[in-house]
C-alpha cells in the first residue's frame, strides 16, 4: 500500500470544501473552474487552491481547452482508502468474533 498517496488522499478529503467540490464533480461531471467556483462562497483563488490539493491527491484531473480549465473527478485513487478501511474492518471483525467466542465460552463454563 502506498502510504504517502493514502495520506494525500485522506488529507485532501479531510476538508469540507474539498469534499463538496469532489461531490459536485461526481454529481455534475467535469466543470470549468469558474463554474465550479460559482457554487461556493469563496474567491476563485481559494477554490483553485482546493482544486490543487485534490489534483495532488489524484482525486481530480484538469483538462485545458484554450483558456478554459475543466476539472473532473477521478475516483480510482479511492481504492487505496477502500483497501485501508477494509483492512481495519477485517481486524475489528476478527476481534469482535474472538470476543464473542470468549463470551460464549464463559457462558458455557457457567452452565
**Ranges with pLDDT <50 over ≥5 residues?**
none
Q: Label the overall shape.
A: elongated
Major beta sheet, specifics?
A: 3 strands, antiparallel
Helix vs. strand class: alpha+beta
Order of helices and strands: HHEHHEEH
How are the strands ordered across the major sheet? 1-3-2
| Radius of gyration of CA atoms, rounded to a whole number | 21 Å
SS field, number of helical segments: 5
Count of beta strands: 3
Portion in helices: 55-70%
Strand percentage, roughly?
5-15%
How confident is the prediction overall: mean pLDDT?
A: 87
Q: What is the end-to-end distance?
A: 47 Å
Topology (elements, then pairings):
Blueprint: H1 3-13, H2 16-28, E1 31-32, H3 33-37, H4 44-56, E2 60-65, E3 68-73, H5 78-110
Helix pairs in contact: 1-4, 1-5, 2-4
Explain what you see.
- The chain has 111 residues and is α+β, with helices and mostly antiparallel strands.
- It has five helices and three strands.
- It has helices at residues 3-13, 16-28, 33-37, 44-56, 78-110; strands at 31-32, 60-65, 68-73.
- A hairpin with a 2-residue loop joins strand 2 and strand 3.
- Helix 2 crosses helix 4 (44-56).
- It is elongated, with a radius of gyration of 21 Å.
Amino acid at each position: 500500500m502506498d502510504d504517502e498517496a493514502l495520506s494525500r488522499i485522506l488529507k485532501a478529503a479531510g476538508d469540507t470544501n474539498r469534499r463538496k467540490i469532489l461531490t459536485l464533480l461526481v454529481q455534475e461531471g467535469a466543470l470549468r473552474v469558474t463554474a465550479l467556483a460559482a457554487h461556493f462562497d469563496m474567491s476563485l483563488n481559494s477554490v483553485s487552491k482546493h482544486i490543487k490539493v485534490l489534483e495532488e491527491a489524484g482525486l481530480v484531473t484538469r483538462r485545458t481547452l484554450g483558456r478554459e480549465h475543466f476539472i473532473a473527478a477521478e475516483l480510482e485513487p479511492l481504492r487505496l482508502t477502500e483497501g485501508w478501511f477494509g483492512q481495519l474492518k477485517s481486524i475489528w471483525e476478527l476481534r469482535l468474533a474472538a470476543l464473542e467466542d470468549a463470551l460464549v465460552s464463559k457462558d458455557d463454563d457457567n452452565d
